[in-house]
Specification:
Blueprint lengths: L2 E5 L3 H7 L2 H10 E5 L8 H8 L4 E4 L8 H4 L7 E4 L10 H5 L3 E4 L1 H20 L2 H9 L17 E5 L3 H10 L5 E5 L5 H7 L2 E2 L2 H7 L2 E4 L13 H6 L5 E4 L8 H9 L4 E4 L19 E3 L12 H16 L6 E2 L9
Parallel strand pairs: 1-2, 1-3, 3-4, 4-5, 6-7, 6-9, 7-8, 9-10, 10-11, 11-12
Antiparallel strand pairs: 5-13
């Protein structure tokens, strides 16, 4: 008997992450049972789809897979989450039944890392401010502030999927890469091409600090007034992770002093209030949470799910596997 694959996400989400070539690939692998009901999938729909299923593909909007739902799928071997965090769908029952869980944080991290790199280059080059100057009739008065991505120090906060990919991209440049991540060993950092250091040293030495940490209680307002004060004058702070990691009131005060430059793709909350002080500061760039998979980039998640399924069937290591013991340190 062939493999049964249950697609649990609602049709609108399916359309976002899968294209025609993806459906053909899935059909070549096995029988595909697709959710055809709009809205958050109801338990009875999940049960119908999962009955007899070997694999389930979830995404945004899928509810928690409770014991009651899992009872109908004794042959279920893996849940492949074609989105980021799995915290909204997993229960201990998954792991207790030997069901493997895998997350699309890797493909999402590609877009995040590429955006962080773009912000790194544009900020070092002073593109944001020089563009504004030229719009106001000036030309190259600020040219002396321009820096290249060459022989500067980049600090990376968090070496998960996005942070690790950012480090890989940075290895194309002659730069020093420092990384702060409590769960990363010095040996792992070295293999990645970075040097592990404590948070204070990373902040004091870096010309650019890029945040890729998860939003967990330990990182809430991690970048407070004291730690922002550790950063070098004229350093650049990039946040493509979560807005809650930065104390925005403290950051606004530091930016008003003119010491730092900030690029924020995330705020807390989103969107920020119309009169939020960060909106009006000339040394703060805010983009509307576009660093992750957006529009055509979302299709990476569909291909990821298919590739992960193939790895599972071939007995190969999974690219995005999430273990139960990792849950406390993941976003």
């Amino acid at each position: 008997m062939g493999v049964k694959i249950a697609i649990l996400a609602e049709p609108d989400i399916q359309q976002r992450i899968f294209e025609d070539s993806h459906w053909r690939q899935l059909a070549d692998i096995g029988e595909v049972a697709r959710n055809d009901q709009p809205g958050v999938p109801r338990p009875e729909i999940l049960k119908r789809l999962l009955e007899g299923a070997d694999y389930a593909i979830t995404s945004w909007g899928c509810p928690t897979l409770t014991r009651d739902i899992l009872e109908v799928a004794p042959e279920l071997k893996a849940v492949i989450h074609a989105a980021g965090t799995v915290k909204g769908i997993v229960t201990p029952d998954l792991w207790s039944r030997g069901i493997r869980v895998t997350s699309g944080n890797g493909p999402l991290g590609i877009g995040v890392a590429e955006t962080a790199l773009g912000m790194t280059i544009a900020s070092l080059k002073e593109m944001w401010r020089l563009s504004q100057d030229t719009r106001n009739g000036k030309w190259d008065e600020g040219r002396g502030r321009v820096r290249e991505l060459y022989r500067v120090t980049i600090g990376v906060i968090g070496a998960g999927k996005a942070g690790a990919h950012y480090i890989r991209l940075l290895r194309n440049f002659e730069v020093t890469i420092l990384v702060y991540d409590p769960v990363l060993t010095a040996e792992q950092a070295e293999v990645m091409g970075a040097v592990k250091r404590g948070l204070e040293e990373v902040l004091r030495r870096s010309d650019v600090v890029s945040i890729h940490a998860p939003s967990i209680p330990e990182t809430h307002k991690m970048f407070n007034r004291e730690r922002l004060g550790w950063m070098k004058d004229d350093a650049i702070l990039i946040n493509t992770a979560r807005g809650s990691i930065v104390d925005e009131e403290a950051l606004a005060d530091v930016l008003r002093e003119g010491r730092l430059f900030a690029c924020l793709d995330v705020t807390d909350p989103e969107p920020p209030a119309a009169d939020h002080p960060l909106r009006g500061l000339p040394n703060c760039i805010i983009t509307p949470h576009l660093a992750g998979a957006v529009n055509n980039g979302v299709k990476r998640l569909g291909q990821f799910a298919i590739d992960e399924l193939r790895r599972m069937l071939a007995g190969e290591p999974l690219a995005g596997e999430v273990k139960e013991e990792q849950m406390s340190t993941l976003a």
